[in-house]
Amino acid sequence: MEYNILIIGGNGLVGKTMARILQTRNPHFNIFIGGRKGGSTDRSLKIDVTDPDTLQIITDKKINLIILSVNDKSDHVLQFAIKNHIDYLDITKPTPDLVKAYDIARKTEVNSRIVFSSGWMGGIVPGLLNVLSKDTHDIQDVKLFVYYSVKDLAGESSAHFMAENVAVPFYDYKNDQPNPIRHFLNTETFDFSFGIGKRNAYNFDVPDLYILNKVERIPNVSVKMTYNSKFITWLLGSFQYLRIFNILSLKERKMIFGSSGNGDQAVFEVVIKDKNGDKKLSLQSKKGQAELTALSAVLHTEELVRNPHENNIYFSHQLHEPLSLLSQLNAYETININMVQ
Q: Which PANTHER family match (predicted)?
């Protein structure tokens, strides 16, 4: 049976990486690329997420699964997928947009698999928690620490999100209550693995905060990040403390967050506390965040195709058996994972 997959935003950095990995691992899949400018082949489709009329080609091409790799703020693609009973995987939404899209899906009759995978690095963090603890109900505290290198290849979407939201408060969770905070404040020193060492890490908003508290019901959740440059990390904290971001224009903020290098490692570390004490999982992507995000999306896609998940709304970690997800990540040549239990 032919399986037709559409990657909307497939001309971007993560989209191209996803198409490469997916096609290499699954040469029998028919992969279509959707973008605003279209292309010269019958696999390149002209699709603009801001123009619902361009979505009709999805049914014309008999697409089985839509992977969304651009931020569809109006949720046109989500609503089209639900209406036409097409499987849907979204890897791009920042927290406010994810909450809105999830609410839309829950209020609609769903006759396909609707998967939200917008957590850190393609939504794999919650899926790895059950490797550390057999039951998330036993977990009382989760801390996610992110190491971000300005030398890493980076797409536009994350930079634009930071530029738009750096001065906007968001929430982490303490004792099951939302705690309003801002980016780059509330320093915590953390000893990163893979030769990075001790760094000051600061508040950082990722959808895992919402997912781990509201979906997995973990009462204490925080996320902190540090840059590869200690000076940049300190400077951004100073800008936030002095409220300089509040007076900069959006264009100026985009200039601050919009840099992209030629490639570097990406690292995240998850520290949990359950009834048996503290445990830690550390993951390194030697090819950086775009490669890891794309690989995660590929693993979710393969899981949807190969296993008979019922029509429903999912967060991507809910598709996987934790040890299977860990094994597949470990098998990828540029991924290293260490655990302390």
A: CARBOXYNORSPERMIDINE SYNTHASE (PTHR43796:SF2)
Q: Nearest-CA neighbor of 196 among 229, 235, 232, 238?
A: 229
211 phi/psi in degrees, rounded to 5: -65, -45
Using DSSP's 3-state secondary structure scheme, residue 278 falls into: strand
Whole-number pLDDT of residue 135: 81
Domain holding 276, by residue range, is 122-287
Is residue 338 one of the residues assigned to a domain? no
pLDDT for residue 163: 85
Give the list of residues 6+ apart from residue 234 with CB closer than 8 angstroms, or none.
200
**Mean pLDDT of all residues in 28-57:** 91
> What are the strands, taking DSSP E only, across 250-326?
266-274, 277-285, 312-315
**Higher pLDDT pick, 326 / 37:** 326
Q: Note the pTM of the prediction, 2 decimals.
A: 0.94
Whole-number Å distance between alpha carbons of 254 and 242: 19
341 within domain boundaries:
no
| 3-class DSSP state of 71 | coil
How many whole angstroms separate alpha carbon 301 and alpha carbon 10?
15
If you average pLDDT over residues 256-277, what whole number do you get?
Answer: 87
| Residue 239 in this model has a pLDDT that exceeds 80 | yes
Q: Are 142 and 199 in a shared domain?
A: yes
Banded pLDDT at 100 (limits 50, 70, 90): very high
213 and 134, same domain (yes or no): yes
Q: What is the CATH number of the domain that holds 56?
A: 3.40.50.720
**Which whole-number Å values give the CA distances from 293 to 13, 16, 45, 271, 305, in the listed order?**
10, 12, 23, 20, 19
